[in-house]
Write a structure and sequence with these properties.
Blueprint: H1 3-34, H2 38-59, H3 65-86, H4 96-106, H5 109-133, H6 143-177, H7 195-206, H8 208-224, H9 234-240, H10 245-255, H11 259-277, H12 286-292, H13 298-309, H14 313-324
Helix pairs in contact: 1-2, 1-6, 2-3, 3-4, 4-5, 4-6, 8-10, 9-10
Length: 326
């Protein structure tokens, strides 16, 4: 399963959640307007503008699913709190349930437990803060409107929570199918490989230094992105890791049948794919994108891209557009 499909689903999830939240706020804006609760109505309008502006800011950066979620959680949690104060007697604290579900799925248990305890403290203290600050509903509602406002969180929270659970289960399934960034596609796994390769791999497991060196190489590629320099070579890598080219070459060749060049091209193409996924081709030329990733010539870029992806860059871009509409 391609990384493209996973990222497209993550983007679609973010879009659905934001659309869901804005729809809810529009509903409450109309409700407060109808009941003449103008202060609450203005707050909903401001909240919509804040979310929209945050979305605009995020859209100008490279898409990062977890970072986007974390920023969204902060914005929504802070923006929601005055809403909770206004409507404390109307089960407004239930709006934190979808937030807790997301936190549970993206953080470890320790972080989730800490946030959960903090939320309990907030829930316990909110009635006192609401009374002290006088931030209560500013109008008296009819009996029907009062009942509707008390039940309304359930109408929205249940489908929103189910949507979150569905998508995170889908992400887990897709992540298990997606090729990891550590080049699983290029790891030698052919049962018909020569005996000397099997012997080499056995030696590799016996000699931990090559395993550790390979991990250093991958970490260096992931964090420092040296492949973006067009003149980056195996000598540059050896110098950066304070070793020699023979060790570098041996460590890579044991794990990756295409060697240093294969590793280099993989990361460059992955960088370009991320740029395409983030629609950089709408802002920059294709030449700018592939030179930023470390390629010097379009011919070699096109050839290597097709070798690794099985399609041309233009076909890849069209595929992104097609998948985003699915």
């Amino acid at each position: 399963m391609s990384n493209i499909y996973l990222i497209s689903k993550q983007k679609k999830f973010i879009t659905y959640i934001i659309a869901f939240i804005i729809s809810i706020l529009i509903f409450y804006t109309a409700f407060f307007y109808y009941t003449k609760a103008y202060l609450e109505m203005m707050y909903c309008v401001i909240f919509i503008l804040v979310i929209s502006y945050s979305l605009f800011i995020i859209s100008n950066f490279n898409f990062n699913f977890k970072a986007t979620l974390k920023i969204g959680l902060i914005v929504f949690s802070l923006g929601q709190y005055p809403f909770v104060l206004f409507l404390w007697s109307y089960n407004s604290y239930l709006w934190y349930i979808p937030i807790l579900i997301i936190i549970y799925r993206i953080y470890n248990y320790k972080v989730f437990s800490s946030i959960f305890l903090l939320l309990i403290a907030v829930i316990i203290s909110t009635p006192f803060i609401s009374d002290f600050s006088k931030l209560n509903l500013t109008v008296k509602l009819t009996e029907k409107a009062d009942l509707f406002l008390k039940l309304s969180p359930l109408f929205f929270i249940i489908p929103q929570s189910l949507l979150i659970i569905y998508y995170f289960n889908l992400f887990s399934k897709l992540e298990n199918q997606v090729t990891p960034s550590l080049l699983e596609n290029n790891i030698v796994s052919n049962d018909n490989k020569p005996k000397e390769n099997i012997d080499t791999e056995e030696n590799f497991h016996e000699n931990k230094k090559y395993h550790l060196l390979y991990q250093e190489i991958i970490e260096y590629f992931e964090k420092s992105k040296p492949y973006k320099a067009s003149d980056f070579n195996i000598q540059s890598l050896a110098k950066a890791l304070h070793t020699n080219t023979s060790y570098i070459s041996r460590a890579i060749n044991i794990k990756n049948e295409k060697g240093f060049k294969g590793l280099l091209n993989y990361y460059r193409i992955e960088q370009i794919k991320k740029d395409f996924m983030n629609n950089h081709q709408k802002k920059y030329t294709i030449k700018h994108i592939y030179t930023e990733a470390g390629f010097s010539h379009q011919a070699s870029f096109n050839r290597i891209f097709k070798e690794l992806e099985g399609m041309t860059p233009n076909e890849f871009i069209k595929d992104i557009k097609r998948r985003s509409r699915v």
